[in-house]
Structure formats: structure tokens, C-alpha cells
From TrEMBL:
GO MF term set: ligase activity
Gene: argS
Catalysis: reaction(s): tRNA(Arg) + L-arginine + ATP = L-arginyl-tRNA(Arg) + AMP + diphosphate
Organism field: Mucilaginibacter dorajii
Enzyme class: ligase
Keyword Protein biosynthesis: yes
Domain called DALR anticodon binding: residue spans: 527-642
Lineage: Bacteria, Pseudomonadati, Bacteroidota, Sphingobacteriia, Sphingobacteriales
Protein name: Arginine--tRNA ligase
Entry's family note: Belongs to the class-I aminoacyl-tRNA synthetase family.
Ranges of residues in domain Arginyl tRNA synthetase N-terminal: 2-85
Length: 642
RNA sequence: GCACUCGUAGCUCAAUUGGAUAGAGCGUCUGACUACGGAUCAGAAGGUUAGGGGUUCGACUCCCUUCGAGUGCACCA
């Protein structure tokens, strides 16, 4: 559409003697209720023309009509100049742009981008939240690649730390030597089982300790500093309880708030008290042994992580995601200390009396943030600084995307700010793709309350539902068993992936496990069905992509379809710029819907003459191609038959 | 308490980043060719865009404010 923008710039120069930037010409699609395909908003130019928006629009319109052979007509409604391009132009678009294999294949833009996603902990299986993360990360990587970037997909595996030790300890104590082989369980689920067992046992051990705190006021188990904290919390709780009693019962809101605060304080006490359980003491010891490289612990760690990796590999395969590079925290958790030195020298960080190192971000509207403990060990953000440096050293990428939930917004704000202040190469290209949590109707998923939706279970259920739906429609007669299995997977995953990706990543997402994901309407299977139907028509016809037919005029739906198809490359760029698969998802749906309308209104195989038939076949084939490519950007396959 | 994010039809989501009479799907109701696949298509009903104020030729979009929801505020990761 650049030629219209250029012409509009010339029109304004010619008519009003003003130079406007091409970007100032806001082209948009003409809304369905008006004639035309392209619209220019003329309000911004009235200050140059010193005329009303209608007259300005008319003047520009007349200029375009006389200067551009592609412009067939125009009309002006208020400040909107609606332009109709002639059918010859649109038909030319189909043959010269859309039909060739080069359509929507971006030239390499010479830029490298890293997309880090998934990044699981190795102590339990993946759940629905991870599914959103994985699908988003994979799709964004596909979109960026289609937009011309060289993409590196990475997975930063959190394979060490206290949570893995919990699973390890529980297995040691209660496992009786169980293995994935001996139980037939998937490795990640087996390890997760022991994590749950750990938490269960921990609660048992915690009860008497809490009893001593609340009932007997006995704090002898705790160190001085902890005692002070607990006493302060107990005090706070007492005050809140008094306040609660003096609050009228009718004021339910105030009561709820007080209860929340009491609950929060009690949780804090619980956290401290956990540290006094035998189980946590042993877990801490195990972590120290791990850090010291104790042979037995290391061996167990390697074994159990191995189980988990085998399990994850299966889940990733089902999900259809993959990675170019794995980073492991066991290798990176000590990184970042040299950056601390560097920051101190540059005066970006400062050291407190106890030896801890901080950065003052109050000038940027944030807080003071600890970057190194007083004992000289790293914290989370120290590692991340080091890992960012490591990644950059490995790839020298222009951009680096972190696909991480929005609960870590603050962390990444701080991390990027620090790297910027340190003047690190690549710091400008850092981006946190922050996505919303997946909520259940009951609220947030909580592993402790057993309300998590397991990724493997979910995918299996989707396949089962796909099978039931397909069989109920009696459409699988004559399909081989092998093809059917493949098909159920394609449809089930298509429904799930589309459901999760059609929503703007930033927004939180509601998932109701009791209400199965739809297969009709604005869904993946709807789009897959459209594709299969086109393929069915094509296979019945002697379709030839090469023949250029001589169509004189287009009908409304046909033109709409071509207009939509021409937008595909722009959609890819927009989605890449916004890191949003939702843009692609909504576009492909719009395309499928428009195709279905065309399909119902126009006969293809029984077209009036052979020329028209070939043309409609070409239009159909183009639609199938774009649907298939668009869905591939979402990581969704489209079947030939379903 | 402080900070950030969000609030659009009964439900789940759009709205070309400040543009036209706010659009889809599900659900509800009505209808569709003896032709290419009915997981489809056509139509109806459904809205004070949470409330109020402001900026603008123009506001779902930007600013202020009230209400409501979520998240974050560890020498955890």
C-alpha cells in the first residue's frame, strides 16, 4: 500500500504546499458498511488545507483518482476518504503476490533474537501455566523467524536448589528405591509425587511446632532473630484480633480485610516455623552437601533430574515445542559475581557495612535492591545478571526475550535497569514478555491445594474429546487407524493451543476444566475444518496453480478474500513487533470465516465457466496456504482431512 | 501501607494503538441450496465500554478520581 501513501503525500504537497511524513498518512481498512478497501483519515490535514474534512477528503480523493490508475473510485464520509482500487489491481495481487511461493516469506533482516521460555523447575511436572508459557514462547519464536529474524530458542532449566532437595530427601526417606521403570510412572510425575509427599510430611511435623508457638508461647526452638520476628507477628495478630472484635459484624468488608491480614501474618510465622522442622533441617543440609559436591547427593540429584528430563522431553514432544539451547542453573548459579565487582568499580553498586552489596534505584522510582548477600553469596538477580552476560557472550544477539509470568514484572524491571546502568552490550534489546496468569473458576492454581491442571492430563483429555467429537460426527470412515490417532492429536492440540493463544498474552486467562474447550465457532478446529474442506475441493478438481486466468471483475466476497490475503505479511510484522500470537490467531480466524462465506455464496466446481472455476480454485488454494502458514506460526497443524 | 496490571453483551474474547453506528464466538431464538464436507452459512435479541470528571474535531484507548479484581513489595528462587 506504499504507493497510496506516496501518492497521498504528493497530493498534500500539491494541494496545500505542505510536506508530511509518510507515517502521518494513517491508512486503515475500510469498514464493511462503506464502499472501498482503503481509508485515509483526513482530520489531521484540515489544518493544512484550512478547509473542512469533507472538502479536504474530496480534494485528495480527486488527486488520487487522476494520478493513480489503480484507483477506481472514492467516496467521502465525514473525515474519512474511502478509496476503491479496481479489480485489475486486486486480481494482480493474487497472481503476482499471493500465489507465488515467495508470499509472506520475509527476507532475513540480519538481526538475531533469543527467546527464552519454558524454564521449568525439575521437582514437579508441568501444569497449565507452563503450557501457556511454552505455547507463547514457541509461537513468538516462529513469528519472529517469519518476520525475518534469526531466532535462538532457549530453555533455562532450574535444576538446583531447595525445591529439588525436597523431592530428593522425600524419595530417600520414603521411596523404597522406586524408579520410573519399576512403577511405570513418567519420570517427572514420579519426582513430583515425592515433592507432594515432602509437603505432606512437612505439615505433620509443623503442627506440634505451631502448637508450641500459639498455645504454649514456647519459642525456645528458635534463634534470637527469629524469636523477635515471631513475637512481633504474634503481637500484630493480637492487635488485629482486637480490632476485629470491635468492628461491627455488618461491616463484612473490613472484617474480610482484617482476616486477610491475620492470615498473612500467620503464614509468615508458618514460614519461620517450617525451618525448625526436622525435615527442613535435613533439606538444608542436603543443599549444603550438594553445593559441596557430596558424591552421594550428586549422584541422587543426577538420577532424579534424569527422570524428570525424560518426562519433560515427552511433554515437550506432545506439545510440539523445542529448543536450540539449554542452560542449566547448576552451571549458572555462581555467575554474576564478577559483574558485582564491575558495578562497584563503576559506582553503580555500593557496599554496606556488613559487606552486602546494593543498588539504589530510588531515583528511578524503585527501591534499594540487594545484589549480593553479606556472606558474599549470590541472590536470584545476581545469577540473572550473570546469565544475561553468558547468553550475550554466546550469541551476541540484538534482542533477548524472556517469556515469564507477570508476577515477575518487578524483578525484570530491576534486572534490565541494572544491566542498562552497567552499560552492558545488548541491554537495550532486553524484553520481558510478561503474560497473565491462567486462572481457574475457583481462582489461581495452587499446587498445595491440588488445584493444578496437569499438562499431560490436559493434553490427553483434549485428544479424547477430539476423538469423541469426531466419531460422533461419523467422519472417520475409511481413515486408517494410524491417521485417526494422528488426527485426534492434531485436533485436540489445535483446540487447546488456539484457545490459549487467541487471547492477548498480557491478559489473564480463564480456563474452566469442567467446560471442555470448544470445537465450534472461534476455535482451532473451526479453522482446521476450513482448511480440510478446501483441500477436499482441490483434490476433486484438476487445479492448476500456474494458469493465469482472465477474470474481468470480482464479486464482493472474492474481493474481500483477496484483500484479507494481502494483509498476511503485515500481520506477521505486527505480531512480531508486538510479540503477540493473538494477532495472528485472530487474523487466521477472520480469514477462515471469510472463506467459509465465499464457499457458501459461490460455487467452485460448478462455476459458470472454466476460467472462473480456475480462478476460484486458485483463490481457495491461496486461502488454504495462508491458513496453514498462519496456524504454523501458532504451532498448530492443519489436517488434509478431518 | 506502597507500587504495578486489569475492568468491554449473560459467558469467553476483539476493536488497525486516538477515528466512522464498539465487533466476533458460545449460549438463547429463527432460518438455509436434492451442488463442491452442516465442526458450515444467513438473520434476531443482547452495551451508559465499572462509576464520575477532564483533554480533543473525535476517547474503550490519554490524564485525574472513586469503586472492584489480581500481582508484587525476602540477605527465597
Amino acid at each position: 500500500m506504499d504507493f497510496i501513501i506516496d501518492a497521498a503525500v504528493k497530493a498534500i504537497k500539491h494541494l496545500y504546499q505542505i510536506d508530511v511524513a509518510p507515517a502521518a498518512i494513517g491508512l486503515q481498512e475500510t469498514r464493511k458498511e462503506f464502499d472501498g478497501q482503503i481509508t485515509i483519515v483526513t482530520f489531521p490535514f484540515t489544518k493544512f488545507s484550512r478547509k473542512g474534512p469533507e472538502q479536504t477528503g474530496t480534494e485528495i480523493g480527486e488527486y488520487l483518482l487522476s494520478e493513480l490508475k489503480e484507483v477506481a473510485a472514492f467516496n467521502v464520509v465525514k473525515g474519512f476518504l474511502n478509496i476503491s482500487l479496481n479489480d485489475e489491481y486486486w486480481i494482480g495481487q493474487l497472481y503476482n503476490e499471493i500465489l507465488p511461493d515467495s508470499f509472506a516469506v520475509a527476507k532475513p533482516n540480519g538481526q538475531k533474537v533469543m527467546v527464552e521460555y519454558s524454564s521449568p523447575n525439575t521437582n514437579k511436572p508441568l501444569h497449565l501455566g507452563h503450557v501457556r508459557n511454552n505455547l507463547l514462547g514457541f509461537s513468538v519464536a516462529q513469528i519472529l523467524a517469519a518476520a525475518g529474524y534469526e531466532v535462538i530458542k532457549t530453555n533455562l532449566v532450574n535444576d538446583r536448589g531447595i525445591h529439588i532437595c525436597k523431592s530428593m530427601l522425600a524419595w530417600q526417606k520414603f521411596g523404597n528405591g522406586e524408579t520410573p521403570e519399576s512403577t511405570g510412572m513418567k519420570g517427572d510425575h514420579l519426582v513430583g509425587k515425592y515433592y507432594v509427599l515432602f509437603e505432606k510430611e512437612l505439615r505433620v511435623q509443623l503442627a506440634p511446632i505451631l502448637d508450641r508457638i500459639y498455645e504454649k508461647n514456647d519459642l525456645s526452638l528458635f534463634k534470637e532473630g527469629q524469636k523477635v520476628k515471631i513475637e512481633a507477628l504474634l503481637n500484630s495478630i493480637d492487635k488485629l484480633k482486637v480490632k476485629k472484635q470491635t468492628t461491627p459484624e455488618a461491616n463484612t468488608k473490613a472484617i474480610d480485610e482484617l482476616n486477610d491480614k491475620i492470615g498473612a501474618d500467620q503464614d509468615k510465622i508458618k514460614e519461620i516455623a517450617k525451618g525448625a522442622t526436622q525435615l527442613m533441617i535435613e533439606t538444608q543440609q542436603m543443599l549444603q552437601q550438594w553445593e559441596a559436591g557430596d558424591a552421594v547427593v550428586m549422584d541422587l540429584w543426577r538420577t532424579m533430574n534424569g527422570w524428570v528430563y525424560a518426562g519433560f522431553a515427552e511433554t515437550y514432544k506432545q506439545m510440539g515445542v523445542d529448543f536450540d539451547k539449554y542452560y542449566y542453573e547448576s552451571n549458572t548459579y555462581l555467575l554474576g559475581k564478577d559483574i558485582i565487582e564491575e558495578g562497584l568499580e563503576k559506582g553503580v553498586f555500593f557496599k554496606k557495612e556488613d559487606g552486602s552489596v546494593w543498588i539504589d534505584l530510588t531515583a528511578d522510582g524503585l527501591d534499594e535492591k540487594l545484589v549480593l548477600r553479606s556472606d558474599g553469596t549470590s541472590v536470584y538477580i545476581t545469577q540473572d545478571m550473570g546469565t544475561a552476560q553468558l547468553k550475550y557472550n554466546d550469541y551476541h544477539m540484538d534482542k533477548s526475550i524472556y517469556v515469564v509470568g507477570n508476577e515477575q514484572d518487578y524483578h525484570f524491571k530491576v534486572l534490565f535497569l541494572i544491566l542498562n546502568k552497567l552499560g552492558k552490550a545488548g541491554a537495550d534489546g532486553l524484553f520481558h514478555l510478561s503474560y497473565g496468569m491462567v486462572d481457574l473458576p475457583s481462582g489461581k492454581m495452587k499446587s498445595r491445594e491440588g488445584t493444578v491442571v496437569d499438562a499431560d492430563d490436559l493434553m490427553a483429555e483434549m485428544e479424547t474429546t477430539a476423538k469423541e467429537q469426531t466419531e460422533a460426527m461419523g467422519k472417520v470412515d475409511g481413515f486408517s487407524e494410524e491417521y485417526k490417532l494422528q488426527l485426534y492429536h492434531t485436533i485436540g492440540m489445535g483446540a487447546l493451543k488456539y484457545f490459549l493463544l487467541k487471547v492477548d498474552p498480557k491478559k489473564r486467562l480463564l480456563f474452566d476444566p469442567n467446560e471442555s474447550v470448544d470445537f465450534q465457532g472461534h476455535t482451532g478446529p473451526f479453522i482446521q475444518y476450513t482448511h480440510a474442506r478446501i483441500k477436499s475441493v482441490l483434490s476433486r478438481a484438476d487445479y492448476n496453480a500456474g494458469i493465469k486466468t482472465d477474470i474481468a471483475a470480482l464479486d464482493g466476497v472474492e474481493r474481500d478474500l483477496i484483500v484479507l490475503l494481502t494483509q498476511f505479511p503485515t500481520v506477521i510484522q505486527d505480531a512480531a513487533n508486538g510479540y503477540s500470537p493473538a494477532i495472528v490467531a485472530n487474523y487466521v480466524y477472520e480469514l477462515a470465516k471469510t472463506y467459509n462465506k465465499f464457499y457458501h455464496e459461490k460455487s467452485i466446481l460448478q462455476a459458470e465457466d472454466e476460467t472462473l472455476k480456475q480462478f476460484r480454485l486458485q483463490l481457495s488454494a491461496s486461502s488454504a496456504k495462508v491458513i496453514s502458514q498462519g496456524m504454523a506460526l501458532l504451532g498448530i497443524d492443519v489436517p488434509e482431512r478431518m
